[in-house]
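Hi all, posting the design record for the shared folder.

TITLE: backbone redesign
STEP: 1 of 1
STRUCTURE INPUT:
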C-alpha cells in the first residue's frame, strides 16, 4: 500500500510505493542543519523508481557541503518545507525527509557527522546501527 506525505501547504505530495517507510538515518552536518533549521536531518534513502513527486518543488544546488559532493535540496517554494535531497553520487535514490510523512518515523539506524551533533542531543541506535564519522 503506497505511503503519501505532503508539505505544510500541501502543494507538494510524495507517494512512496512501499508497504512501510524505509530505515532512517540522521545527519548532523552543518548544511543539513541549516537547510531544515533543525539540529539534524532525518532522512530515508529510497529508490527513485518507488517515489512519485506531485507538484513542482524548488531546487537549491548545495555546492558547499562538508564532503564536497553536490547535494540538490528540494523544497516547497510556497511554505518552505524541505522535501528531499538527491546527489549524483547516488543517482538511483532520493533522501526523503522523514517528517514529510504523517507516520511514526522509524528510529535512525545510521548517524552521519555524529561528531557535529549538539551536546544536548542524545540517541540510542541499538546493535544493528552504524555510526559514520565523516
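Okay, here is what came back for every position:
SEQUENCE:
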Amino acid at each position: 500500500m503506497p505511503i503519501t506525505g505532503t508539505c505544510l501547504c500541501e502543494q507538494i505530495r510524495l507517494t512512496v510505493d512501499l508497504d512501510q517507510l524505509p530505515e532512517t538515518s540522521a545527519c548532523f552536518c552543518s548544511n543539513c542543519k541549516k537547510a531544515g533549521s533543525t539540529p539534524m536531518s532525518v532522512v530515508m534513502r529510497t529508490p527513485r523508481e518507488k517515489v512519485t513527486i506531485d507538484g513542482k518543488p524548488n531546487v537549491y544546488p548545495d555546492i558547499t557541503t562538508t564532503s564536497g559532493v553536490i547535494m540538490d535540496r528540494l523544497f516547497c517554494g510556497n511554505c518552505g518545507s524541505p522535501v528531499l535531497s538527491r546527489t549524483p553520487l547516488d543517482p538511483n535514490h532520493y533522501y526523503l525527509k522523514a517528517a514529510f510523512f504523517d507516520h511514526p518515523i522509524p528510529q535512525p539506524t545510521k548517524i552521519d557527522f555524529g561528531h557535529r551533533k549538539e551536546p544536548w542531543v542524545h540517541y540510542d541506535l541499538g546493535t544493528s546501527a552504524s555510526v559514520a564519522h565523516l
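COMMENT: Confidence is low (pLDDT under 50) at residues 127-134.
Let me know if anyone wants the other runs.
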